[in-house]
Amino acid sequence: MPDWGDVLSAHDGWLRRVVATRLREPQGVDEVMQEVALAVVAQRSPLLDPGRVVGWLYRLAVRQTLLYRRKAGRRRSLVDRCATLRPAPDEAPGPSPLVWLLHDERREIVQNALRSLPPRDADLLALKYGEGWSARELAELLGVGIPAIETRLMRARRRLRAQLESLATDFKDPSHD
């Protein structure tokens, strides 16, 4: 039986990236990772093929993320029904308001574009570019060949590029054309 603490530590970085990509709210990543760890420890049947632990962890993280999002949605619905919303106090921007604003807008555009992608594409892009995974590592994770991963990455990049172009045109001011 593997030492699950070591296994989770070894895969913590990319698992967090997958959870964060699917969750889209950074404050819940730690909670989901705790649920993943509990599910790993509480497993009832042993993993027969240790070579498949990466794919198993991936599926487990996705499942726990979905459960968390469902629970968070219910919680938000309850809060919305029971509480009145008050505006948050103004926060002072960084030293350069223009730089802060541009950075914030770019991040928002990219996040919106990623949200519009299918989860599989968003996961692939997050692991490839956020974690620096190779096509070989992604192929092992998903149990497909390297050419299939390269094709999926190409399609995911194309979809992201199209979404970014679409969102960027939405922000253009027609009076400046």
Automatic annotation (TrEMBL):
The keyword Cell wall biogenesis/degradation does not apply. One of its GO terms (biological process) is DNA-templated transcription initiation. Residues 108-160 form the RNA polymerase sigma factor 70 region 4 type domain. GO terms for molecular function: DNA binding; sigma factor activity. InterPro entries: RNA_pol_sigma-70-like, RNA_pol_sigma-70_dom, RNA_pol_sigma70_r2, RNA_pol_sigma70_r4_t2, RNA_pol_sigma_r2, RNA_pol_sigma_r3/r4-like, WH-like_DNA-bd_sf. Belongs to the sigma-70 factor family. ECF subfamily. This is ECF RNA polymerase sigma factor SigE. It comes from Paludisphaera borealis. The gene is sigE_21.
